[in-house]
Write a sequence for this structure.
C-alpha cells in the first residue's frame, strides 16, 4: 500500500481542489470577457454547434466527407474570429482556459489510467507534512546529530560513548542512503535522551525523499488507535492495523511505554511478525532492556527481535538535558 488511506484521501482532495480552482478561475475570466464582449459568447456557441453538427453528420452517414469539410472550414473561421475578439479586448487564450498545476493529467492525478508523477510527489509531500506535525522532523537530520555531547572516555579498553555513537550514526547513514523495501530492521536500545528518535526520524526523512511511504509514531499512540478501532465496523473506517502492516517503513518509538493489555501485546507481536514475514523494514526504539522486554512481552517476542533486527545499543548521558543547559561532555559551554 505504501501510504495510509488518510494520505491517499488528502492527496485526492488536494487534486480535486486544484482541478476545480483552475476551472472556476477560467470560468470567471470567461464571464468577464463575455460581459465586455457579448459577441464572443455568440461565436463560442456557434463553435460548439459545429462540433455537434459534425457528430450528427457522421451518424446520418450521407456524404459525410463533404459535410465535415464544410463544418471544419466554418469552425476554423469562427475560431479565428474568437481569437481576434480576445486580442481586441486584451485577453489571451490562456486567460480563459483552465491553468492546471500539472499539464499532463490536468490535476486529475492520472494519465491513461496510470498514476501521474505529480500525484506521487503530492503523496510524498503530504506524508512528510503529516510526519512533521507529530514529530520534530525538521530538527532531525544526520547533519545536526552532534557527537560532541558524548564522552570520549574509554572504560576497560572498550569503545567510548562517542565512538559507539559514531558507529551507530555511520550505520544509520548507510542504511538511509541504501534504503529499499527490503532494507532490513533496526532495533535502537538505550536510556532516554540519547538520540534514538533523532536518528529514526533522519532515516524517515531520507526514505520519504526517496518516495517511500513511512509511518512513524510512538507505541502508545499506535496502541490507542488499535484499541479504539478494535470494535469499529469496517464501514466506519479504522485502518491502523493495515497501515502498520503494509507501509514501506514502520518506525515504532518508545516500545514498552504503551498501555499494557493482552490484546495490545498480541497485536504488536503480530505486526512485527507480519512485517518480518513480508520482509518489510521496521525500526523500533525502546528504553527497556532485553530482560525488561521479555518480561513485558514474552521470550518469543525477544527471540524474533534478536533474530531479525540489527541491534544498536545507544550509550551516553541524556543529550537533551545537555543541549538545554548548553553543556558538553568535556565541560565546554
Amino acid at each position: 500500500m505504501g501510504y495510509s488511506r488518510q494520505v491517499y484521501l488528502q492527496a485526492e482532495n488536494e487534486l480535486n481542489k486544484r482541478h476545480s480552482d483552475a476551472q472556476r478561475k477560467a470560468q470567471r475570466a470567461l464571464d468577464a470577457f463575455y460581459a465586455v464582449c457579448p459577441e464572443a459568447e455568440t461565436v463560442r456557441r456557434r463553435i460548439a454547434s459545429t462540433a455537434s453538427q459534425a457528430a450528427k453528420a457522421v451518424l446520418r452517414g450521407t456524404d459525410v466527407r463533404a459535410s465535415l469539410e464544410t463544418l471544419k472550414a466554418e469552425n476554423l473561421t469562427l475560431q479565428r474570429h474568437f481569437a481576434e475578439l480576445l486580442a481586441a479586448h486584451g485577453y489571451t487564450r490562456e486567460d480563459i482556459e483552465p491553468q492546471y498545476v500539472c499539464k499532463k493529467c490536468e490535476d486529475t492525478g492520472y494519465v491513461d489510467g496510470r498514476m501521474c508523477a505529480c500525484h506521487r510527489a503530492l503523496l510524498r509531500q503530504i506524508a512528510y507534512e503529516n510526519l512533521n506535525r507529530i514529530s520534530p522532523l525538521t530538527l532531525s537530520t544526520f547533519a545536526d546529530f552532534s557527537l560532541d555531547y558524548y564522552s570520549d572516555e574509554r572504560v576497560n579498553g572498550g569503545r567510548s560513548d562517542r565512538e559507539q555513537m559514531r558507529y551507530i550514526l555511520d550505520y544509520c547513514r548507510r542504511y538511509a542512503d541504501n534504503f529499499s523495501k527490503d532494507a532490513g530492521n533496526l532495533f535502537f536500545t538505550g536510556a532516554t535522551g540519547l538520540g534514538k528518535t533523532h536518528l529514526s526520524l533522519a532515516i524517515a526523512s531520507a526514505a520519504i525523499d526517496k518516495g517511500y511511504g513511512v509511518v512513524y509514531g510512538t507505541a502508545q499512540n499506535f496502541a490507542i488507535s488499535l484499541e479504539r478501532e478494535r470494535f469499529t465496523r469496517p464501514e466506519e473506517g479504522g485502518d491502523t492495523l493495515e497501515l502498520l502492516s503494509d507501509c514501506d517503513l514502520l518506525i515504532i518509538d518508545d516500545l514498552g511505554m504503551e498501555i499494557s493489555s493482552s490484546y495490545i501485546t498480541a497485536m504488536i507481536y503480530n505486526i512485527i511478525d507480519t512485517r518480518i514475514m513480508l520482509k518489510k523494514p521496521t525500526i523500533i526504539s525502546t528504553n527497556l532492556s532485553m530482560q525488561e522486554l521479555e518480561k513485558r512481552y514474552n521470550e518469543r517476542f525477544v527471540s524474533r527481535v534478536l533474530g531479525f533486527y540489527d541491534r544498536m545499543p545507544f550509550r551516553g548521558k541524556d543529550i537533551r538535558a545537555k543541549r538545554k543547559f548548553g553543556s558538553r561532555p568535556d565541560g565546554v559551554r
Confidence is low (pLDDT under 50) at residues 233-238, 328-333.
